[in-house]
């Protein structure tokens, strides 16, 4: 249980830190760059990735390369969504990506649909529709970005999940996949920030470095303790799955509304119970 609580807290704290960085004028793109440096070092030091396994001729380098490009892109979208739509809607969008992941599992990975999973899928689609509704009219509602960016986050995280499933199906060790993706994502982001600094004379800052290293620590801790929770409860994957996703939805809502005063419309509020019920049904279908 402790592993799950830590994983949930770290997941929400990623969004909180992005919000605080934006409020304090810290360059989030630079922070995301250093985030991947921290994640790479922690992955190498704590998971001991079997990199030798990548030497096989059938290693899916195309999927690894796509994952390396998608990771920084989705993190930038996550940051933009936190700014435009808030922590609550962004965290729910991130967790509702499981709806698209489940659909992909039915279509491409041969997983069997059952009544509970289908019901969860339908409710999940309803939650997504309520999620992207504008909380209010006018410019304070966030404009098109307030609904478009959570959708980008949702699709992006689902795409990452599909790529990880493809890598697992190819026999690529999870830790090795993460290590390569983190290092490549850091390289891509560092090159982008170097070009940006040369073109616009935006200097690298110590504040962005410190915040980025903390961001990477939280990002990696979320993954690490989620994996540990599954290992601690190997016979109860549905319990771990449901508690993780529901925990992030609930805690993200509390932090966003109580901590940052985010305003939600009636449809946005309806997305919360729909998302929780959908997660519960999907988890029951797994179990």
TrEMBL record:
The chain crosses the membrane at residues 6-22, 34-55, 61-80, 92-109, 115-134, 146-164, 170-190, 202-227, 239-260, 267-286. Keywords: Membrane, Transmembrane, Transmembrane helix. SUPFAM superfamilies: Multidrug resistance efflux transporter EmrE. Pfam families: EamA (PF00892). Residues 3-132 form the EamA domain. This is EamA/RhaT family transporter. It comes from Pseudoxanthomonas mexicana.
């Amino acid at each position: 249980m402790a592993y799950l609580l830590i994983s949930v807290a770290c997941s929400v704290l990623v969004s909180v830190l992005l919000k605080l960085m934006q409020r304090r004028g810290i360059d989030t793109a630079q922070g995301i760059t250093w985030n991947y440096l921290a994640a790479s070092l922690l992955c190498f030091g704590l998971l001991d990735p079997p990199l030798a396994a990548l030497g096989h001729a059938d290693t899916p380098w195309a999927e690894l390369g796509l994952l390396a490009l998608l990771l920084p892109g989705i993190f930038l979208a996550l940051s933009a969504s936190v700014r435009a739509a808030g922590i609550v809607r962004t965290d729910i969008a991130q967790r509702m990506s499981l709806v698209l992941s489940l659909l992909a599992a039915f279509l491409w990975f041969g997983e069997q649909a059952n009544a509970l999973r289908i019901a969860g899928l339908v409710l999940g689609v309803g939650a997504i529709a309520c999620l992207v509704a504008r909380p209010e009219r006018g410019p304070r509602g966030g404009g098109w970005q307030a609904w478009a960016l959570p959708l980008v986050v949702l699709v992006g995280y689902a795409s990452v999940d599909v790529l990880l499933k493809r890598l697992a199906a190819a026999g690529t060790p999870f830790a090795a996949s993460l290590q390569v993706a983190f290092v490549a994502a850091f390289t891509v982001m560092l090159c982008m920030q170097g070009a940006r600094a040369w073109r616009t004379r935006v200097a690298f800052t110590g504040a962005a470095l410190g915040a980025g290293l903390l961001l990477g620590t939280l990002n990696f801790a979320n993954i690490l303790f989620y994996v540990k929770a599954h290992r601690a409860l190997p016979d109860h994957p549905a319990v771990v799955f449901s508690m993780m996703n529901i925990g992030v939805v609930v805690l993200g809502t509390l932090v966003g509304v109580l901590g940052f005063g985010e305003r939600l419309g009636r449809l946005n509020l309806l997305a919360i119970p729909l998302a929780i019920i959908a997660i519960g049904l999907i988890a029951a279908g797994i179990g």
